[in-house]
Amino acid sequence: MWTPTEEEKYGVVICSFRGSVPQGLVLEIGETVQIFEKCEGWYRGVSTKKPNVKGIFPVNYIHLKKAIVSNRGQYETVVPLEDSIVTEVTATLQEWSSLWKQLYVKHKVDLFYKLRHVMNELIDLRRQLLSGHLTQDQVREVKRHITVRLDWGNEHLGLDLVPRKDFEVVDSDQISVSDLYKMHLSSRQSVQQSTSQVDTMRPRHGETCRMPVPHHFFLSLKSFTYNTIGEDTDVFFSLYDMREGKQISERFLVRLNKNGGPRNPEKIERMCALFTDLSSKDMKRDLYIVAHVIRIGRMLLNDSKKGPAHLHYRRPYGCAVLSILDVLQSLTELKEEKDFVLKVYTCNNESEWSQIHENIIRKSSAKYSAPSASHGLIISLQLLRGDMEQIRRENPMIFNRGLAITRKLGFPDVIMPGDIRNDLYLTLEKGDFERGGKSVQKNIEVTMYVLYADGEILKDCISLGSGEPNRSSYHSFVLYHSNSPRWGEIIKLPIPIDRFRGSHLRFEFRHCSTKDKGEKKLFGFAFSPLMRDDGTTLSDDIHELYVYKCDENSTFNNHALYLGLPCCKEDYNGCPNIPSSLIFQRSTKESFFISTQLSSTKLTQNVDLLALLKWKAFPDRIMDILGRLRHVSGEEIVKFLQDILDTLFVILDDNTEKYGLLVFQSLVFIINLLRDIKYFHFRPVMDTYIQKHFAGALAYKELIRCLKWYMDCSAELIRQDHIQEAMRALEYLFKFIVQSRILYSRATCGMEEEQFRSSIQELFQSIRFVLSLDSRNSETLLFTQAALLNSFPTIFDELLQMFTVQEVAEFVRGTLGSMPSTVHIGQSMDVVKLQSIARTVDSRLFSFSESRRILLPVVLHHIHLHLRQQKELLICSGILGSIFSIVKTSSLEADVMEEVEMMVESLLDVLLQTLLTIMSKSHAQEAGEYVSCLLSLLRQMCDTHYQHLLDNFQSKDELKEFLLKIFCVFRNLMKMSVFPRDWMVMRLLTSNIIVTTVQYLSSALHKNFTETDFDFKVWNSYFSLAVLFINQPSLQLEIITSAKRKKIIDKYGDMRVMMAYELFSMWQNLGEHKIHFIPGMIGPFLGVTLVPQPEVRNIMIPIFHDMMDWEQRKNGNFKQVEAELIDKLDSMVSEGKGDESYRELFGLLLLEKVEQETWRETGISFVTSVTRLMERLLDYRDCMKGEETENKKIGCTVNLMNFYKSEINKEEMYIRYIHKLCDMHLQAENYTEAAFTLLLYCELLQWEERPLREFLHYPSQTEWQRKEGLCRKIIHYFNKGKSWEFGIPLCRELACQYESLYDYQSLSWIRKMEASYYDNIMEQQRLEPEFFRVGFYGRKFPFFLRNKEYVCRGHDYERLEAFQQRMLSEFPQAVAMQHPNHPDDAILQCDAQYLQIYAVTPIPDYVDVLQMDRVPDRVKSFYRVNNVRKFRYDRPFHKGPKDKENEFKSLWIERTTLTLTHSLPGISRWFEVERRELVEVSPLENAIQVVENKNQELRALISQYQHRQAHGNINLLSMCLNGVIDAAVNGGVARYQEAFFDKDYIAKHPGDTEKITQLKELMQEQVHVLGVGLAVHEKFVHPEMRPLHKKLIDQFQMMRASLYHEFPGLDKLSPACSGTSTPRGNVLASHSPMSPESIKMTHRHSPMNLMGTGRHSSSSLSSHASSEAGNVVVLGDSSMGEAPEDLYHHMQLAYPNPRYQGSITNVSVLSSSQASPSSSSLSSTHSAPSQMITSAPSSARGSPSLPDKYRHAREMMLLLPTHRDRPSSAMYPAAILENGQLPNFQRALFQQVVGSCKPCSDPNLSVAEKAVPAAPSSWSLDSGAREAQPFLSAHMGRILAPPVPPRSLLHGHYSLHFDAFHHPLGDTPPALPARTLRKSPLHPIPASPTSPQSGLDGSNSTLSGSASSGVSSLSESNFGHSSEVPPRTDTMDSMPSQAWNADEDLEPPYLPVHYSLSESAVLDSIKAQPCRSHSAPGCVIPQDPMDPPALPPKPYHTRLPALEHDEGVLLREDADRPRGLHRKASLPPGSAKEEQARMAWEHGRGEQ
Questions:
Q1: In this structure, how many other beta carbons lie within 10 angstroms of the beta carbon of residue 1544?
Q2: Which among 388, 1616, 1667, 1888 has most CB atoms closer than 10 A?
Q3: Most distant CA pair in the chain, distance
Q4: SS3 category, 1241
Q5: Which of 1813, 1842, 1989 is nearest to 1928 (CA)?
Q6: What share of the chain is helix, strand, coil (3-state, %, to 5)?
Q7: In a 10 Å sphere around its CB, with 0-12 CB exposed, 13-18 middle and 19+ buried, how is residue 912 labelled?
Q8: Neighbours of 1328 (CB within 10 A)
Q9: Are 1904 and 1711 in contact (CB under 8 A)?
Q10: According to the 3-state scheme, what is the secondary structure of 1786-1846?
Q11: What is the pLDDT of residues 28-83, one digit of tens each?
Q12: What is the C-alpha to C-alpha distance for residues 934 and 941, in angstroms, rounded to an integer?
């Protein structure tokens, strides 16, 4: 049964509960719960975190706490009954815990650990508080520690400052705003003090009061180490001031036995002392702790003969010192004892013993020595602060250890009343004695006694030092053989005060013999009385005493015998006639010196004081005695304060007339003395005296009379010192007056009351008189008035004892009123006057409402005057603060209404004016003070006050001025940071007061300024205020913690909503005047609606509809609203305001309103476009503020820019975003795009002289000037982007303008610029970019990308893999799609991100240029990849059954053409796809295209050589011819013949007859072209290359025959074909066996990759066959005249033999051509469809751990048939020798090709020059290779190589162009770029059956690597050697080392290749060259901050047939040549080709 709980209402969870039962409440440890009901071990209740969720939880999981329950029942509230500071600590720790963890995440580790320490301390302190075992003082101390830590943590975590009073959090409702402000200030100061040090030494005591803090040293002797003295010792400790050379404290004595322990066993561990009462000044002195060690024993320590053993002497032994200054710092920081070792030194000469400590301090080491290194005293020290009571309280343990209090000599700085002391300190200084007839000097010992008047020796009146009991006699230490001993020993004589008078000291002098008897012989004495005859004590001075002779027999029993004698010189002078026959004779040659110092509160050494106290003895001297009182020292006066006062008032009573004024003056002197800080603590003594001991009942009359007389004299006297002193003593004079009157009244039952009152009235008239005097010309009078005003407020409390509150108030009002107004007196007097008023306001009198009613007007009058003149503002604000504080505390009283009314009338206006002035000067502190005053006043005002205020305005102008002022002040309050950010309490209270005030004033605004009297200025001011208010940071509750938010809403509600309602209501009240605020208020109101508070948005968004409506009514449209809204929306959203929900709400609310209007269509259109703009702006903001990549930001900006232009036509915004976009491009170094972007702005401008205003960074200028500046900048950017073709038209446009203006200087400049651009086009290297198609699918993409496809222009050197990686890093959430198919709806609509990326091939627009023969390749290169709007991507597929014998029969191409919205390049690196077209190309059409392309390529190449005059480098022609002829002979064209000339095919495809005929014609045409080519070749061929030419002729004959006949021997294999394969990846460099990378590289241009890289891939034939040859070098070049589509055709035509498909793994193509996507129909059939790139790392190169999906392809490549499997031809046998060697001409050719492959390039030469050397010294082969390599390595591995200067070449050498064309198989990544040209001097170059096309057009024979293949390529080169090799920066030693070992056994499939011209010579020359590596792994991307060096041009699109070198010819080599690594396995010769072709194709299909 659940029963409601009675006591168990509140508890803390002590163990987490998971709520695993039905209705269980999940609770975390530390949570608090409110309990409602109980049932059998379970409670039901709620967690205070979630008060709405009820549940049950176990009883034993809860620790109950006491609580106060209010409103019992269903809605009861529970408040825990605990100290508020405990609650605060709990809440604060919970708040800190989450922030603390964040510190670690943000790497603020230092603060993290500090905060952890502080949190642990807080938990510990909280535990102490809760324990309940602390005393009140301890509780207070713990609370102080807690608040210091809380404030420190809040400060460092950026949390709010908590205002406190006495460690408790103050409630802002209970105190005035002024007090709250002061508390914030004091809390801030305490935080700043504690910030420097958290651990918190106690704050210095006394910082808050005027009393100086005494310091004390606690000293404890731990041990006297290694004490080897062997006798008892006395150790004396004292404090010594080195600067003054004197001891400043008593001595502390420790008595040790001969073992070093305490002589008294009780003293073990208790040898400690407290040196007390050191002032702050003392702590700065050069103090030392000095320890003197006196031994007690034999005369000489080591001489047992000297003196008998039974006699003990006190003998000096040693001394030790410790500097206090040296240890003070460590003692101050440490709050406990610290040990020190004091080294003990002995004196070298005993006569200097009295100075030993000074010698040690001065380090006069000759005068002392150390008995042993480790001889020392171990002491511990501790520094304590505070008065003795406090020290006792805080350190009780110290006092329990038998502490010896060791006092300071003399009085401390502050003499406390009741501190009774009577000590005489006597120092035994020195003596001078006669030798007395002895041969050696005496050993003198002094014995001292204190004797009373009767001759009795006083017991226990001598103290050698604290810590030991007093004794009756004193024996000095003995100095050995010294007649002039210097002792310097201080003895304290604590003689009782009653025994002091009449006592005297007697000193007896003895010689201590060291003879056997060792007796001590008395030889003289001296004496001194303690008091003189006049009653004063012995003065503090050195006294020379007479020494009288005597001996052991002399008796001192009758002390009168010697007391009659003179004791010293002064005494002798007093009694000159002393008979010489006395018993004691003075020894005139001997003298004895002592010094004394009295510290007594009872005895005086002052004669004048004594005379005053005994005035009756000198009645005739009273006047003189009273006059001399002011010369007595203050210490003496306060010691006898009560006696002196009694004496003065007795004298006054004795003769008032005679002594009245003197007594008054003496009294004034004593009162002022007590104002001194040293005696300040005697004021309570004075108060006590007045209350309890003062008996002068008649004194008041004389005191009033004297005081009035002083006042009245002040107008006449020149010197007024005594008057000023009397004014300062006013407080105590009035105390005496009032007490005297009370005593008189009591004694006489109230007689003479009227006389007293009238005398006081008269006195006040005199006071008013003094104050009313004009003091401007008299400084003395000014000081008198100031003294009077300062003292005046102190008399109020005394007057209140005799008069009523009203009467006193009237006195005060009259006095304050008598002061002249500010205008008439000086500034210093102003301050004094205001201070007096301030103290009046702070006095008890002002707390009475009766007196306030009287005093307030005059106080306000003076403040008003000062504020009007802006003087003494800080004091005035203090006074006002006090007034408001009092008014707030007494606000329940009825009179307060009247007082507030008074203040409103007097102050409100002037306060506002003052604030405006202060704010304009930005005086923060003054502003804070006055703001708090203003807010206090406004807070006190109620309806009545506001009503009166508004009614009191005489006119609307006055009201208007007032409203403008107050609104302006409020606005400034929110704009200026008057209160710091963390003063949350203050800020919220301010906001609350403002919103309340505005609610009161808005009605007045509406009533007075709406209709006919509409005033725009006031309304505008009001609206601005409301907008600022709602946008205040302190009111944005969304950003604070939920607990704090709840607290604020509970207290104040959401004030933004309150103000929004007020604002909306006022807007509605405007009526037709709304139009005045359109468009001005649109921006501000928009800012309000963007506040993330739904209610505010709901209230304010409809205002925009209202604005649209009003403008529609007035203008018939709402263009202004539209323009302003869009403009402001842009800036505000970019500032971070607004969100998706706002966009939706905005559209929803406005559409709803607009629907009902007549202008709904335009309205809806506008609202829709604004919401769409918002959508884009939010996207843009998210991109900009996030860690987004440049691409995303640029895309977003383009999207927004286009929206501004096309949809809402906002030109200015459009231009702004043009510049933002341009800046982004420049940052990303996209200079071409930056230029195109700026061009958009440039196109908006005309060549006119129209003036333009200043805009963005442009100055005011004409349109012409701006356009010119833009053009120049754009040209500059085009130049930096190497897009000179785009810059040239602008140069011409500028030239035209300059010409029309006859500005020839500029014209010359621009023409030169244009010319330089032409030069650049021809001479500088430019990289051709890749293009990639990207699809963004899924709803998670930003709006501008969602479900769209783009084509992107890649960066320099960027390959597909790198591009995909970049895209995936930009969209880390995205998934890469692995197929090229268009995604379905499920993907388009899913909440995810899918990226589909593949490469595409550009379809150039400028085909005409590309087809012109004589256009240089560098020119064509530009047009191939620029201004491109269409891109193509081909995918091969089989239709119908696949013919295994010849797959070309069924191989179709699916060609996708993408059309973009804009051409690339443009304002972005990517544009959206506008249109897709899909066509299918039949196998026959494909063949036609390939053959046609190859024919065009051949024609172009041949035409170049036809026009040459002399023999030149014809390597390109050789390679090209060889490629086509060799491929045709070996099955290239035959494949097409098999496929399409077959009868079956013709029968099945009757419609293709025409195309078949066309193909035949093209083949015949090819034969004709080849014939012409061979003729040209014969003309120019080098004699050494004749064998190659002969071979070509023979093969050509076979090819020609094959076109018309069947070739039955086609499938036969030639044994001559076996050669060594080298992987394509390192064709020219490293001779590695086939690796997976080679497969990947081969695969690079399969159809899947063709979209991006096609234009660099091999021709169809080369790539088809590229899988067979293993590693092939293709010699060839290609022309640029054909479209990429045609290339495909040529390739197929050249290589129709399917047996070679998939076997050519590495082809090095040295070409400038660009393959079309369809470039390899043959290889395509066997390649994986790979537009999709894989992410396999480049490091997989050659790795055995290649993934399975690639392994079979790799193994297949390793198992390819040897080249013997190739078809035989008639040419092969002739070309191959019996031993398998290459014939000489082929070896020579390849020797030249490979040569000493040191790259070399001259970027300054044109392409044509490089291709056709004009001089006999042509380029070396490796120069070309060097030139091409950067491209290859760049495209393969992004390695950048610097350009290398050309080297001198041998005349007549040839170079060949290589281009490696390969076909990627499967999805493997590209292999290493083949830039390591050589690891050993020889490089086997495998021949190729393929025909990769090279691009050579016109005069351009530049050789470059296929950019997509990533293989090295070689430019035309000879075999000269560089004399100078630049340093390498990218040498790649990690390339697989193919260590070519000539001794290795070579097997047939890998026969190395010999190259031979005259082989030995060439090889020798090659070997001499150093090896250089230019390669790096594909994954290495060196970050070169510099611009990349000039590089050779990239390979380009078009494919042309290339010459084939027969593998058999090229790839034979001796068995003793270096070779590659062995393959893993090889297939039997017969089955390889079919198996390999099948596997390649199936692998490709599987991948697709």
A1: 8
A2: 1888
A3: 178
A4: helix
A5: 1842
A6: 50, 15, 35
A7: buried
A8: 26
A9: yes
A10: HHHHHHHHHCCCCCCCCCCCCHHHHHCCCCCCCCCHHHHHHHHHHHHHHHHHCCCCCCCCC
A11: 888 889 999 999 899 999 998 888 889 999 999 999 988 888 878 777 888 887 78
A12: 11
Peptide bond connecting 1079 to the previous residue in cis, omega within 30 degrees of 0: yes
Alpha carbon of residue 900 to chain centroid: 49
Q: Which of 1212, 1217, 1484, 1198 is nearest to 1342 (CA)?
A: 1198
Q: Quick one: DSSP state of residue 17?
A: B
pLDDT number for residue 309: 64
- Paired with 1164 in beta bridges are none
**Structure token pair of residue 744:** 């008189």
Of the candidates 861, 763, 847, 752, the one whose C-alpha atom is nearest the C-alpha of residue 805 is 847
Instruction: Tell me if residue 1619 falls in helix, strand or coil.
Output: coil
Q: Is 173 exposed, middle or buried (0-12, 13-18, 19+ CB in 10 A)?
A: exposed
3-state secondary structure 1410-1466: HHCCCCCHHHHHHHHHCCEEEEEEEEEEECCCCCCCCHHHCEEEEEEEEEEEEEECC
The token duo for 1333 is 């198609």
Cα dihedral sign, 1896-1897-1901-1903: negative
Helix and strand numbers, DSSP H then E, in the chain: 72, 41
1931 contacts 1630 by C-beta, under 8 angstroms: no
Omega of the bond prior to 1465 within 30 degrees of 0, cis? yes
Residues contacting residue 1294 through CB under 8 Å, at least 6 positions apart: 1268, 1271, 1272, 1275, 1306, 1310
Q: Where are the alpha helices (DSSP H) in 1186-1303?
A: 1190-1202, 1211-1227, 1231-1244, 1263-1280, 1284-1300
Answer left, alpha or beta for residue 321, where phi above 0 means left and psi between -120 and 50 means alpha: beta
* Residue 242 in tokens: 């080195």
Query: Could you tell me the CA-to-CA distances from 1404 to 1409, 1465, 1720 in Å, in that order?
Result: 10, 12, 20
DSSP characters over 1957-2023: SSHHHHHHHHHTSPP------TT------SPPPP-PPPP-S-----B-B-HHHHS---TTS--PPPP
Which pLDDT tens digit goes with each residue over 1851-1899?
444 333 333 333 333 443 333 333 333 333 333 333 333 333 333 333 3
Terminal Cα distance for the chain, rounded? 72
- In our burial notation (b when 16+ CB lie closer than 10 A, e otherwise), range 758-784 reads ebbeebbbbbbebbebebeebebbbbb
- The sign one gets for the Cα dihedral 1290, 1292, 1295, 1297 is negative
Q: Are 1704 and 1889 in contact (CB under 8 A)?
A: yes
Residue 1399 CA from chain centroid, whole number: 44
Residues ≥6 apart with Cβ < 8 Å to 1606: none
Phi, psi of 1920 (to 5 degrees): -65, 165
For the chain, what is the radius of gyration of the CA atoms?
56
Provide the 8-state DSSP code for 1643: H
Which tokens go with 342? Answer: 């004091």
Query: Count of CB atoms within 10 A of residue 1992's CB?
Result: 30
With a cut of 90, say whether residue 1267 has pLDDT above it.
yes
- pTM of this structure: 0.61
How far apart are alpha carbons 543 and 1290 in whole angstroms?
Answer: 112
Would you say 858 and 768 are in contact if contact means Cβ atoms under 8 Å apart? no
CA distances from 1577 to 6, 1511, 1592, 1775 (A): 116, 10, 10, 19
| Angle at alpha carbon of residue 1791, lines to 1785 and 1793, rounded to 5° | 105
CB 1758 within 8 Å of CB 2025: yes
Torsion of CA 2025, 2029, 2033, 2038, to 10 degrees: -50
Structure tokens at 73: 């029942």
d(C-alpha 886, C-alpha 894), whole Å: 14
* 1216-1227 pLDDT per residue, tens: 889 988 988 998
Q: Say if CB 1583 and CB 1598 are below 8 A apart.
A: no
